[in-house]
Design a protein that fits this description.
two-stranded antiparallel ribbon; 11 strands; 19 helices; single chain; globular; Butyryl-Coa Dehydrogenase, subunit A, domain 1; 55% helix; Butyryl-CoA Dehydrogenase, subunit A, domain 2; 3 domains
């Protein structure tokens, strides 16, 4: 099967669904015309299809290895990464002052998703660098920016984030990595970090680590954490990579998937680092990188989902088995009702998740271009939804893709299983999807639900406008939106956060279902009588009704969740 980048889908979203015209009306992004974005997407799509997609299976069958202290990446990855750098794909949204293109995040997110669909293991390297670039742009000193940003933006150097420790996963405040002030503007960093994606490699250049650590005497918990830039190679007087820092790779994790991407256990033994941001302001600085990465990880889920869908569709078109509605005798399984159900569901959910992610990116761009607090709040609200729904969609679609293959999905030769293995971690890293849901119902509702209600108001306005064209579809989306509004009001009335947390995941998914229906409806209005209208009808009539059960779950509270004791849970 040959991967096809969703260039036309993105062009359609940009021009007809997500309102990129508003972005182009700003001074910052006025140059991102339709012709420009179309040209970039076309070139990116070609690059993904021709350069990255051929590396997908190679990365799985020839995993990254640690050999005599050197991380060896799969065959072709070095050349593939060099081509990414040559194309300028790392620094698309970065500050032009340091060599970036200054393009909208919406365009960057689209390209990131395409790269993920083509070869997610390799895409992880530039994605993490992009997150670090944004963190340094916002929080680093001018000296650090001048030294590191140009080479990170060019791709010559790569970036990582170092949060997790053996005893400190989601509870970041439990970390024990120490920082000691050297008295010369540098700090000595000592500790061990785990699950460090692309923590080392043989692609060439320096590896720049952003490391969370605690100074002696700093408060316990997250409030006492600072952020440090710790390069693998120290810089000489001219700013070039020189001698080795006291940083080493202890081992590589043996993973379920993403075999081509080295996931490292990193050891810091008094390594020299430089403060990024304020002392004890490490989490604020790191959250800049994490939020960038959460949008990117949502895109990873969507990209893998799309690739899995394409793979399954190609197989279904080719596989002859049994009588179908479409012909006599042995015909393609595409004619079987259940296969058609799975494929249509896959396609509909990919579009919904993709459209939500683009809306998220546009909100980030509008916030950056205008400074408007409402856009900032919109971006913050959509980030956990994009991450959780995008990755859950990736997992569900990849699973359906495997099912379409039948028995051949369970054997490795078809490649269907790789999508399941590769995408599964996306619901775990960059904050588990459960934590994303908790963030949505707690932190993102600290404004009294203002951002959530404003978004639902916008959905309602669009639905009202669509009634003249699609009265039945619009009515169904309207009713779902009102149910979501009522559920949000209930949520806001719960002062005990445990009551909110008990139903946080179904609440997030219900919100995503309604946003997906809204965006499908907009697509149908823009393309009446075509494939997008048909897909919208399927989504709204068959998938949207899930929201009712999800909202019932969301509003059930915590009492029955904790009714069973630990002992009772253990009884078989």
């Amino acid at each position: 099967m040959t991967y096809r980048a969703p260039v036309e889908d993105y062009n359609f979203l940009f021009e007809h669904v997500v309102g990129l015209d508003r972005l182009r009306a700003t001074e910052r992004f006025g140059d991102a015309t339709a012709d420009v974005t179309r040209a970039i997407l076309t070139e990116a799509g070609k690059f993904c299809e021709e350069v990255m997609a051929p590396l997908q299976r190679v990365g799985d069958t020839h995993p990254a290895i640690l050999e005599n202290g050197v991380v060896r990446t799969p065959p072709g990855f070095r050349e593939g990464y060099a081509a990414i750098c040559e194309g300028g794909w790392v620094g698309m949204s970065a500050d032009p002052e340091y060599g970036g293109m200054g393009l909208p995040m919406a365009v960057n997110a689209a390209v990131g998703e395409m790269m993920s669909g083509a070869c997610i293991s390799l895409q992880l390297a530039p994605m993490l660098s992009q997150g670090q670039i944004e963190a340094l742009e916002h929080h680093a000193s001018d000296t650090l920016k001048a030294l590191y940003l140009p080479k990170l933006i060019s791709g010559e150097w790569t970036g990582t984030m170092n949060l997790t420790e053996p005893q400190a996963g989601s509870d970041v405040g439990a970390l024990t990595t120490k920082a000691v002030d050297n008295g010369d503007g540098t700090y000595a960093i000592t500790g061990q970090k785990i699950y460090i994606t692309w923590g080392d490699h043989d692609l060439g250049g320096n590896v720049c680590h952003l490391v969370l650590a605690r100074l002696e005497g700093a408060p316990a918990g997250v409030k006492g954490i600072s952020l440090f830039l710790v390069p693998k190679l120290l810089l000489d007087a001219d700013g070039n990579a020189g001698p080795r820092n006291d940083v080493s790779v202890v081992s590589l994790e043996h993973k379920m998937g993403l075999h081509g991407s080295p996931t490292c256990v990193m050891q810091y033994d008094g390594a020299t680092g430089w403060l990024v941001g304020e002392l004890q302001g490490g989490m604020d600085a790191m959250f800049t990188m994490m939020n960038n990465a959460r949008l990117g990880v949502g895109g990873q889920g969507i990209g893998v989902a799309d690739a899995s869908y394409q793979h399954a569709l190609a197989y279904a078109q080719d596989r002859k088995q049994g009588k179908t509605k479409t012909g006599e005798g042995k015909d393609s399984i595409l004619g079987h009702a259940d296969v058609r159900r799975m494929l249509t569901t896959m396609k509909a959910d990919v579009f919904a998740a993709r459209a939500i992610a683009v809306c998220n990116a546009v909100a980030i761009d509008m916030a950056n271009a205008t400074g408007d607090k409402a856009w900032k709040a919109r971006a913050a609200l959509l980030t956990p939804i994009t991450k959780a729904f995008g990755t859950d969609t990736g997992i569900a679609v990849a699973d359906m893709g495997l099912q379409v293959h039948g028995g051949m999905g369970f054997v490795e030769e078809t490649g269907a299983a790789q999508f399941c293995r590769d995408v599964r971690v996306t619901a775990i890293y960059e904050g588990t999807n459960g934590i994303q849901a908790m963030d949505l119902v707690a932190r993102k509702m600290m404004d009294g639900g203002e951002a959530a209600m404003a978004l639902l108001d916008e959905v309602a306005e669009d639905v009202e406008a669509a009634k003249a064209v699609f009265p039945r579809l619009a009515a169904e989306v309207w009713e779902a939106t009102e149910s979501m509004r009522e559920a949000t009001e209930w949520l806001l009335s719960q002062t005990d956060l445990q009551e909110r947390f008990a139903g946080a995941v179904p609440y997030l998914h219900a919100f995503a279902r309604i946003l997906g229906a809204h965006l499908h409806l907009k697509a149908a209005v823009a393309e009446r009588g075509g494939a997008r209208e048909k897909l919208a009808r399927y989504y709204i009539q068959r998938i949207l009704p899930e929201h009712a059960a999800l909202l019932a779950h969301a509003q059930a509270g915590a009492e029955d969740l904790y009714a069973l004791t630990a002992e009772e849970l253990a009884v078989s």
